[in-house]
Design a protein that fits this description.
The protein is built from six helices and five strands, in the order ββαβββααααα. With 169 residues, it is α+β, with helices and mostly antiparallel strands. Helix 2 packs across helix 5 (139-149) and helix 3 packs across helix 6. It has a five-stranded mixed beta sheet with strand order 2-1-5-3-4, with helices on one face. It folds into two domains: 2-76, Roll (Ubiquitin-like (UB roll)), CATH 3.10.20.30; 86-167, DNA polymerase, domain 1 (Orthogonal Bundle), CATH 1.10.150.120. It binds FE2/S2 (inorganic) cluster (FES) (2 copies). Residues 97-103, 134-136, 138 line the site of one FE2/S2 (inorganic) cluster.
Length: 169
């Protein structure tokens, strides 16, 4: 049975088992390996992608659930101009990545947060990011990087618009 959906702005139609998790379709059918497998039971956040702009766990999302919907993966987080997403830039500046395994999921949760709430409080950040586990313990740096990318922390309005635009690439 075929499923048709959008991935990073490109329409894809695939003949796959409708119960196959989106994570494995991304990795195996589409070679988008930036989305990681951690637990497979929606407990770690490593597999987070955006579905219609919302952060979702792709390991427990059957491909049938994305029919006609917009999926964004870490590979689609850059802007149309190829520039890094402001959060990716902040991640570098705050030296967030250590082993790196959790990082694409962290960035997808953080970017969904800022798209929905461009000026999150510490508790908003903690609530939005609580499902993303980092075994390297980079939680403090993740929070600081998100705060430095929020509207409140910058006078550059373009940053806000970039965050919003990238989310529906
Ligand atoms: S692999 Fe999906 S939440 Fe852990
Ligand atoms: S950077 Fe290693 S698990 Fe998060």
């Amino acid at each position: 049975m075929s499923t048709s959906f959008w991935v990073n702005g490109e329409q894809r139609t695939l003949d796959v088992d409708p119960s196959k998790p989106l994570l494995w379709v991304l990795r195996e059918q589409l070679a988008l390996t930036g989305t990681k497998f951690g637990c497979g039971i929606a407990q770690c956040g490593a597999c987070t992608v955006h579905i219609d702009g919302q952060a979702m766990r792709s390991c427990v999302t059957p491909i049938s659930r994305v029919e006609g919907r917009q999926v964004t993966t870490i590979e689609g987080l850059r802007g149309d101009d190829g520039d890094l997403h402001p959060l990716q830039q902040a991640w570098i500046e705050h030296q967030v990545p250590q082993c790196g395994y959790c990082q694409s999921g962290q960035l997808m949760s953080a970017s969904a947060l800022l798209s929905n709430n461009p000026n999150p409080s510490d508790s908003d950040i903690d609530a939005a990011m609580s499902g993303n586990i980092c075994r390297c313990g980079m939680y403090g740096r993740i929070r600081e990087a998100i705060k430095s990318s929020s509207v409140a922390s910058t006078s550059d309005e373009k940053l806000f618009y970039n965050v919003a635009e990238v989310d529906h690439v």
